[in-house]
Amino acid sequence: MRSTAGETTAELVLALEVAEAAGDLLLDYATRDVRKRHKSGRELVSEADFAAQRLIVDAIREAFPSDGVIAEESIRVVGRPESGRRWFVDPLDGTTNFLKGQSRWGTSIAFYDGEAGAMGVVTCPPRGETYYASIGGGAYLGEETLTCSDVGHLADTVVASGFPYDFSKGSNLEEWTAITPQVLTVRCLGAAALDLCDVASGRSDAFWEQGLGLWDTAAGIVIAAESGALVTDMEGVVLAEPSCDVIVANPLLHRKVLTCLRSGSAEIPVVARS
């Protein structure tokens, strides 16, 4: 367990422990007939989501009662805004996969402390995988150091993305149409936090999506960035905070992917956030 300057922080220790506990709880729910409902449009939520969220948020509130918490299932704990200490929690990323008996789902927990840094933990309990990273401390899958791929040609690129549940806010179809003929394949696997970790591990070469929740991206973008990937918004601005719109790719590919998604316009420069 590593963080900035190679040290272990109390926040990272807590996130790893509570993510493991949430994973055990969710694996138990996966053996049951779980109650579910539509929470908005086509998006599903289940009793497992709420149970895992209660476990995680209660642990954070007990350990760090003044911190802010933003969790997917309608929890917004303000904490002390002046402190800048915020947690982002997705208790069950990939709920539809979970409910259909598929193995691509997990938990995402991130902590941001203003200018002091950030850390993220993403788990995939069915595969027994735990990804984690802190700014300046590297990215890891268990004890394995993660490095993003070095694929440089679009024709060799494996890309992941997804579609929003609410198409009234944008469909992502134009971007799929623009990039699909240019790359090796585009995959829609149904769990954005794990898609970001796939870029970090080199299982995928790039990922983009729009209209996500901040809890979807907060942990994964830290892990991807610490693996060496370039993490920006859809305008090419490097992200230092969670965003609902992201493009993540290795540095050789990022500008090519960004340009392709913008329908073949002139290459768009990547710029640091001011």
Architecture per CATH nomenclature, i.e. the level-2 architecture of the largest domain: 2-Layer Sandwich
Distance between the termini: 31 Å
- The CATH superfamily of the largest domain turns out to be Fructose-1,6-Bisphosphatase, subunit A, domain 1
The average pLDDT is: 89
The helix/strand order is HEEHEEEHEEEEEEHEHEHEEH
Q: Biggest sheet: strands side by side, in what order?
A: 4-3-5-6-7-8-9-10
Structurally, how many domains make up the residues? 2
CATH class designation of the largest domain: Alpha Beta
Count of helical stretches: 7
Catalytic activity: a myo-inositol phosphate + H2O = myo-inositol + phosphate
Enzyme class: hydrolase
Protein name: inositol-phosphate phosphatase
Keywords: Hydrolase, Magnesium, Metal-binding
